[in-house]
Each structure stands twice: as structure tokens, then as C-alpha cells.
Amino acid sequence: MPRKFLKRLMPSVDKVREVKALGVFGEALFHPALWHLNRRSAAGGVATGLFCGLIPGPLQMLGAGIAAMLFRVNLPVALLTTLYTNPITIVPLYLIAYKIGTAVLGATGGRTPEPPPDWVWSQIGASMEAYGQWVLGLGAPLALGVFLLAVLLAASGYLVVRLLWNVYLRMAWAARSKRRQVR
């Protein structure tokens, strides 16, 4: 992958150290493995972000940060990858997860899930509460489906990043070999 490009986008460790609110994590947040960018750490960061992106509510980045520290994968990549879920994508993802859960658990009791409630921008609190009640009404098939979808997305993301990184390296090696032969 274009490592130099990604390095330019990532914040420096020194800038992160200046944020006083992050002092609660102590020196664990500044372990070199969390900021090093290589095949394993980038692929692990993507997998962590994809898995934690399906955590309900605003806890995705906190979950991705904690998981990145536990697994020693690239922290900025993990945090950035969680952004694939947003108010537009979360409902279709949860519907896919529900279908996966019902397929694994079997029958749904013969009923189809209720459609998601309408979002009213002038009443954000009520809309969030309505979505929460809707999600809770989906029950066990949704819970299992979210977990399985998160595992599937994480594994796929990990493999895709590793594959693309290997393709990029092979192309770079071939170009370097070609340049050496011209001399």
C-alpha cells in the first residue's frame, strides 16, 4: 500500500501526546506497535475497525481503540476504519445482520421484521429512542447476526489489505528490478 501517503494522513505521536484527555490511557497509548505502519498492523487495524464499527451507539471508536491496544495493531487505521458505519449505513448493515442471524438460528416465528422508524431531524432524541426500541425488538437473530457479520467483515478486511499490500509490493519489486536491469 502507499505507505508514505498513509503516513502523511496519520497524526504524529507527539501531537497525540499533547491531548490531555488521552492521559487516562497512560503510556499504553504510545506503544510503538500502535503507530507503526506495516502489512500486519495495517491489516489488523482494518480488521479491528471493521469489527468494532458494528458496536451499537457511539462506542465504536472507544472499542476500536481498546482492541487496537490489546492486539497491538495500528491505532489510527483502526479508528478511521470504524467510520464505515454512520446513520445512513447502519440500518442496512443491521438488516443484513438480522438476515444472517435468522438464517443461522432458523425460523423467525413466521413474522417479518418491522420496518425501521422514520427519522425526524427536529426530534433527534425521540428518533434515537425509536431506533433503539426497533433494534431491541429484533432480538436474538440480530445479536447473533451482528456478531457474525462483524467477524466476516473483519476477516475479509484483513485478507483484502494483506492481498493488496502484497500485490503492491510485488509491483514495486518488479519495477525496481526493471530499473536495475536498465542500468
How would you describe this protein?
It is a single chain. The protein is mainly alpha-helical. The protein has one domain (3-101, 143-182). The chain has seven helices and no strands. The mean pLDDT is 84.
- The SS-based structural class is mainly alpha
Count of alpha/pi helices? 7
Q: What do the pLDDT scores average to? A: 84
Name the shape in a single word. globular
Percent strand equals under 5%
* Total beta strand runs: 0
Largest sheet: none
Query: Unreliable runs, pLDDT <50, ≥5 residues?
Result: none
Number of domains: 1
Sequence of secondary-structure elements: HHHHHHH
- Report how far the terminal alpha carbons are from each other: 27 Å
Would you summarize the structure shown here?
The chain is mostly helical.
Strand and helix map with partners:
Elements: H1 3-9, H2 13-17, H3 39-52, H4 60-71, H5 75-81, H6 90-105, H7 124-182
Sum up the structure in keywords:
183 residues; mainly alpha
